[in-house]
Design goal:
The complex is a heterodimer. By secondary structure, chain A is mainly beta. Chain A has no helices and 9 strands. In chain A, strand 3 and strand 4 (47-50) form a beta hairpin. Chain B is built from no helices and 11 strands. Classes of the chains: A mainly beta, B mainly beta.
Chain lengths: 112, 119
């Protein structure tokens, strides 16, 4: 089972919106609502920004939102801010003992 | 404040062994699930192994099955990853991460530790 597919990079100007897609299969994203998104700055550990497809942990700005349709989950950043420039990873429950969790390939968000 | 403090890692020759540790503070691992997740520049994040509860249930990615062993010491509130028969493709930054009480996402991560397999 391969990693979830994400675009390598997306970019936008401050104030714009960007959307990152995360494509899996009917064995992971298509079946389970355990999709989470993580933000990672260079040299740092990942930090959750969305869980259970659409939920935001406390402290995460409401500019971040998540959704899912079929085998594809999406993360939208509205009103892009300079501090949003980072790497973003999706993650889904994999549903099998040998692939309990599967991560996306990662997307670099650049704020122009 | 919850912290996961990692130790271990370093440079090891192919075929060698290494043990990583992940000590929790502010969180009790015996009631949590903990994973090891590794990261390489080319492949991003990869789930490696998972320990649930007091260690009765373990899971491994196919790429490490039979070579890596995850375990926990409840008295030290620490989770370990013993790595044997290491290969070049195991070179990565290794993170421990706690699964949320609901089990649906990783809510806390360790600081990461570099493992380099090279002669």
């Amino acid at each position: 089972q391969s990693a979830l597919t994400q675009p390598r990079s997306v970019s936008g100007s401050p104030g714009q919106s960007v959307t990152i897609s995360c494509t899996g299969t009917s064995s992971d994203i298509g079946t389970y609502n355990y999709v989470s998104w993580y933000k990672q700055h260079p040299g740092g550990a990942p930090k959750v920004i969305i869980y259970d497809v659409t939920k935001r942990p406390s402290g995460v700005p409401d500019r971040f939102s998540g959704s899912k349709s079929g085998n594809t989950a999406s993360l939208t950043i509205s009103g892009l801010q300079p501090e949003d420039e980072a790497d973003y990873y999706c993650c889904s429950y994999g549903g099998s003992y040998s692939l309990l969790y599967v991560f996306g390939s990662g997307t670099k968000v650049t704020v122009l | 404040e919850v912290q996961l403090l990692q130790s271990g890692g370093g440079l090891v020759q192919p075929g060698g062994s290494l043990t990583l540790s992940c000590a929790g503070s502010g969180v009790t691992f015996s009631t949590s699930a903990v994973s090891w997740v590794r990261q390489t520049p080319g492949k991003g994040l990869e789930w490696v192994s998972n320990l649930r509860g007091s260690g009765a249930v373990t899971y491994y990615a196919d790429s490490v099955k039979g070579r890596f062993t995850i375990s926990g010491d409840t008295s030290k509130n620490t989770v370990y990853l013993q790595m044997h028969s290491l290969r070049g493709e195991d070179t990565a930054i290794y993170y421990c991460a706690r699964r949320s009480p609901s089990g649906s996402f990783y809510d806390y991560w360790g600081q990461g530790t570099q493992v380099t397999v090279s002669s």
